[in-house]
Each structure stands twice: as C-alpha cells, then as structure tokens.
Specification:
This protein is an alpha/beta fold. It has two domains: about 130 residues, NAD(P)-binding Rossmann-like Domain (Rossmann fold), CATH 3.40.50.720; about 160 residues, Dihydrodipicolinate Reductase, domain 2 (2-Layer Sandwich), CATH 3.30.360. It contains nine helices and 14 strands.
C-alpha cells in the first residue's frame, strides 16, 4: 500500500456511513485531530445526513462545508473522502465495507467487525485484494491506559501473566424489543454488543485464544441477555468474561501474574487509572501519561490518530489490531453463539 504523504494530502478526508450516535462520537473526535477533516456524511435518508451535519459539536475548530449524501455509494465515490468510517448496525457492515474497499477507500469499521467469521474473512480478503487499509474500530486498544497496561505486562511488572477477568453490563430493561441491542435482525445480544470488550481485552493482554466455553440466558427476542465465557490462551493462561443486558456490572478488569496483579479502574475499556500490586507489597497507583487529565475530545481520538499513522506509513492494517486477530475473535464469538444456541436471520 502506498503511503499517504503529507505533501500529497496535508489533511485526511473522512466520510461517515451512518448518521447515528456512534458516528457523532467519531465526528467529535475528528475535530480534535488537526490533520483530519470531515468532508461527507452518507445516509439512506439524505435528510438525516443533513440534520447530522447541522448539529453543533463542542470544541469544533474547523468550519468547512460537509457534504450530505443520500446513499452509501455516493459517499464512497466522493473524491475528497480518503477514509470511510462505518457506524451502522452490525449486519450492514459487510456490504458497506465491500462498497468502500472496492472504491479504493481506507476503512475504519465499527465493532463488532461483522456478524460472523465468514463475513469477516470476505472483508479482509477484499481489502488485501485491493491493497486498501482496513481496521476494526476497537478504540479501547489505543487509549493510554491500555498502552501502559500492555507495557507493564510485557516488562514483567507482575511476573508471568496467568489470568484475566473482565465484565461489562448494563440493564436494557427500558429498551424496546426493536432496539438494536435486542433485535436479532440487527445482530442484537450482549455478546456482540458489549461482550466484545472483555473478549478483546483478554486477547489483547494474553494473546491468541485456543479454546472457549460459553453459556447464556436468552431473552424474549431470542438474543443473549446475560453471557459468561471462559477461555484458554496459546501460552496456557486463562481468562473469564461476562457481559449482561440484565444488570449493571462493575465494568472492572484484573490481570493476574505470578508476582502480582494489575487492577484496571472501571470502566476498564476507558480506564484512567491502573493499580499495581507487586508480590506482597501494598497497592501502588500507577500514573499513566495522558490519562490523568480530561480526554482530548473523546475516547476515539487515539484510534483516529492510529489510522492516520498507518496511512502515512503505508500500512494496510494496524499492528495494534491486526486483521487476522479481528477475524479470529469474530470466529470465537461464532463458537460461543453456537454453544448457547443463537443464530441470526440469514445465517
């Protein structure tokens, strides 16, 4: 993949597929990255795209016209769009990626990457065929606390890592059955919506998963509303994850080592503090550069910067969230869903 040089493109143009809340967060992040420019928003309803563009966004310093497109095809064909961000419901991801990659655009696709492994493999194969950049938007991996956590583990701060536990849950009791988190036709369920965070965290810290066992409670719409899973990793370490749409959990994570542990302050996926216990010594709060002050815009800024870094370096994927790992993790969610009996329409 040819590097996107600063001289050829001093600012990188972004186009958003989808005009919902998650796209709004990405748009706000772009306004905090000086070399980023939001150039277009695409929606199947052009009025929705125009309304999205018209929303005031705090801290925006760049006031340039943003185009509204009434189709995803028009968005990916926009010549000023360098990167396409996909912020639509899970089942739409694969078709949007096909459009954008075939148009030669770089793609940042919201998690979960796809509904199942087959779709993930197809997207990655297409990106490699077109020599186009592709990345799953697992922003958690790029925030300063996660970078520091991984450094501490790699440097042996707690000895050999042997286990990880993490949970993420909230009550969806007030949501209608048609909400994306509960609707099977929208890829609903706790595992794909929020369970991906403890799953991804465990793989981020302990490496490749080699076995997994899951169980779940299925709700009235047929999707999982409380899920637990145990995993074994290639190095022999074990991990436990839980996700829930029935109850609010602590959103806490712990990494255990042979000579200590690291406690990740909740919510673990957006932690701003780590606590390290080495051997039998008392807890030590570990300051992490950049997380003891307010977010620079929001949590998504660091992943936008990672996309830019990769494009400037001519990389077709991020070494922090490699495509093969994305595919593997989607596959493990397939395995877990099969174990507790959840299939989506069309699978």
């Amino acid at each position: 993949m040819q590097a996107l040089t600063t001289s050829a493109r001093p600012r990188i143009g972004w186009g958003l597929i989808g005009a919902g809340g998650i796209s709004d967060q990405l748009a706000r992040a772009l306004s905090h990255v000086p070399e980023a420019r939001l150039v277009a928003v695409g929606s199947r309803d052009v009025g929705k795209a125009r309304a999205f563009i018209a929303q005031p966004r705090q801290h925006e310093t760049i006031h340039e016209p943003v185009r509204a497109h009434g189709s995803y095809r028009a968005l990916v064909d926009d010549p000023d769009v360098d990167v396409v961000y996909i912020g639509t419901p899970h089942p739409d991801h694969i078709d949007s990626m096909r459009l954008a990659l075939a148009a030669g655009k770089a793609v940042l696709c919201e998690k979960p990457f796809t509904l199942n492994r087959g779709e993930a493999e197809a997207a990655v194969a297409l990106a490699r065929r077109h020599d186009a950049f592709l990345m799953e938007a697992m922003w958690m991996r790029y925030v300063p606390a996660m970078v520091e956590l991984r450094r501490l583990v790699a440097d042996g701060a707690i000895g050999e890592p042997v286990a990880v536990s993490a949970d993420f849950g909230f009550s969806a009791a007030g949501l209608p059955a048609s909400h994306r988190a509960l609707a099977p036709e929208l890829g609903g369920g706790g595992l794909l919506d929020i369970g991906i965070y403890p799953l991804n965290f465990a793989a981020f810290v302990l490496g490749d998963i080699v076995a997994a066992q899951a169980d779940a409670v299925l709700g009235p719409t047929g999707v999982d509303i409380h899920t637990v899973f145990n995993m074994r990793h290639a190095g022999g370490a074990l991990s436990q994850g839980m996700c829930s749409l029935r109850t609010t959990t602590a959103c806490h994570a712990t990494v255990l080592g042979t000579d200590g542990r690291i406690d990740v302050a909740p919510p673990f996926y957006a932690a701003q503090q780590l606590r390290v216990a080495r051997g039998t010594r008392p807890w030590e709060e570990t300051p992490v550069e950049g997380i003891d002050r307010p977010w620079r815009g929001n949590r998504y800024v660091a992943q936008v910067e990672e996309v830019h870094r990769c494009l400037r370096a001519g990389l077709a994927e991020s070494p922090v969230m490699p495509l093969d790992e994305t595919v593997a993790l989607v596959g493990w969610m397939d395995t877990m869903r099969a174990q507790f009996g959840l299939r989506y329409p069309g699978e």
